[in-house]
Amino acid sequence: MSYRYLELKFAGRLIDLLGQQMYGGPVPSVAELIANAWDADADEVDVTLPANVHAEGATIVVRDYGKGMTFDELNEYYLHIGHERRVRGERTPGNRLVMGRKGIGKLAGFGIAEDIIVTSVKEGHLTELKLNYTELKSLTTVANHRLKPLRDEASTERDGVTVVFSGLKLSKNINQDSFRTSMSRRFALSIETMKVRVNGVEVRKEELSFEHREPATGWAKENVEGFGEIEYWFGFLKSTIHDPELRGVSCFARERVAQFTPFVFNLTGGINGQVALEYFTGQVKAEQLDEKIDLVATDRQTVNWQLGNAPILEEWGKEKVKQLCSEWKTRQDKRKVDRFQHKLGEFFVRIEKLSSSQERKDLTSALTKVAQIERMTEEDFRTIAGSMVAGVERESVRKVIQRINATSEDAMPELLEAIKEWDIIASVATAEILRGKIDIIEQFKKHIDARVPEKSKGDALDMQTFIKNYPWLLGHKFEQLTPADFHHERGVDKWIEEVLIDTNREYSATDERDGRRFDLVCIKNDWMIVVLELMRPGKPEDYDHIMRLNRYVTRIQAAVSERSNNNLFTGGKTVLGLLIADEGSSDTSLGQTKKDLRNSLDSITWNGLFDAAKVNYREYYDTLRLKAPDDPRLTGVVAL
């Protein structure tokens, strides 16, 4: 009986899937070659990066000084896509644990280059070949594709392999310092075992400023039951970590990254000291992740934590992170309490003068707890402590209530006196709040003078955030707003569709008239929507910003008008635009434009904004002091 046979084929697009789409960027592409150098027992590797990746003839060159490959070894191993390196042994001739396994790392260069040129020297013979991305991808079937070597000749060069990436497909230049740092995070190699140089400068482990590290130096060893022995170090930096490559834990197998950051063992909650994760970094060596069962993803970025014994290590990691974060919070609490008690000792001196020992005990305990609040700043603590201490010093509101309740029906003078006392206490409390607001306004002015940007990345301060946090800076009519009342950095059409039309529907782009995004929008009350356009301090108002703001206002007003009859949320609202700039414009035509738009648009300078707010609060403060001009409690509030 005769049979017909089916034939398995691989299209050239496999090169695309395993190369370009899997390894994006120069760091992971070069990292594959450094891993190859390790497996070749190289003691040093030189990486050469171009100053300008867009320059004609720009290349990335990786030269290792390992044992190299012969013509036959290139044929049998290097050009055998998917050949598992470890079938030749778990260790190299130099007794290193083999890093390579899947046999596709040589395609990584296609993620950043059109051509890969490989030059191998071994035992006095040189072989050179070229792989072209477009040519390989275009192949209908990849099976025994023949390559003519560029060179096949005797050589006196030192053994090793040189790989050149040419026809670079990078959109921006490579920062050499960032490249070295990222590369150092992908390997746990000792520079004494294999040196890696980038443009002549050695890749070294970065120097970090730790608040705490476990262990203090080097690596700790631990036998995780059911998983095996691992090594690790964990630490908390002295300042917040903004670099995602540094935040969290990297896991290594065979000296090479297996799980990249940011990662905390898939921990999603239940941490005492959640803020600690913003300072947390560390590394774990776990060879078992890449042994009999390969638990590492092809791109060396993640571990499959559901397979094999990986869940055991994951659970160990979760408990370890929880423990470390709890210990960090304990240390942080003690430092904060000590710092507040030292720097703000005047409050604790006042507490000691209280007549009641219970009040002293309760107030000290309360302030200690306040000091331990995550993200509590010295400025916030000063405000809270001042209010709490002053409240107890005034014998507390509770005692005034007791006096009011104790008055008889015919003792009107006593009742009026108690109510007056209540009014003074309330006035003092309000005056202290106003004092705090004036301080914030002064701080606001300093930021304006320092040219803080209208928006920034990460946790850095910007004026949009400042306005959201302190909306009363815009005036008394904004007093009741909270940060949640503001819509921030949204496309105007998207905002109209999601907020004004249907709050339960996601936006689908149908109108591309204006791709710009407003800075802040708030629905201030039942009849007003305010659109804020904030210009960077240092820049005067200009026609472009005025007209952009006018487009936002008219577009939102049109949407409100169209729906005023059937939408209680937006019906009848007026839309007002407010531009805040560093200074006004001297352009008379712009001034006329603003006059024409004055019913729906206004502008003010940053200094004018805080001056107006400061005047309003000072007037209010002066009014409060008139309630009891001779009462030491009111006169004792720091004058504005």
Describe the 3D structure.
The chain is extended and about 115 Å long. With 640 residues, it is an alpha+beta fold. The protein has an 8-stranded mixed β-sheet. Strands 9, 10, 11, 12, 13 and 14 form a 6-stranded mixed β-sheet that branches. The longest helix is centred in the last third of the chain and has 38 residues, at 412-449. The protein is built from 17 helices and 19 strands. It has 4 domains: 13-202, Heat Shock Protein 90, CATH 3.30.565.10; 210-329, 2-Layer Sandwich (Ribosomal Protein S5, domain 2), CATH 3.30.230; 333-444, no CATH class; 453-610, Trna Endonuclease, Chain: A, domain 1 (3-Layer(aba) Sandwich), CATH 3.40.1350. Strand 12 (248-253) and strand 13 form a beta hairpin.
Q: What does the overall shape look like?
A: extended
Q: CATH superfamily assignment of the largest domain?
A: Histidine kinase-like ATPase, C-terminal domain
Percent strand = 15-25%
Tell me the domain tally.
4
Q: List the strand order in the largest sheet.
A: 5-4-3-6-2-1-7-8
- CATH topology group of the largest domain: Heat Shock Protein 90
Radius of gyration over C-alpha positions, nearest whole angstrom = 34 Å
Q: Report mean pLDDT, rounded to a whole number.
A: 77
CATH architecture of the largest domain: 2-Layer Sandwich
Unreliable runs: none
Largest sheet, strands/sense/barrel: 8 strands, mixed
- Extended strand count: 19
Residues in helices, as a percent range: 25-40%
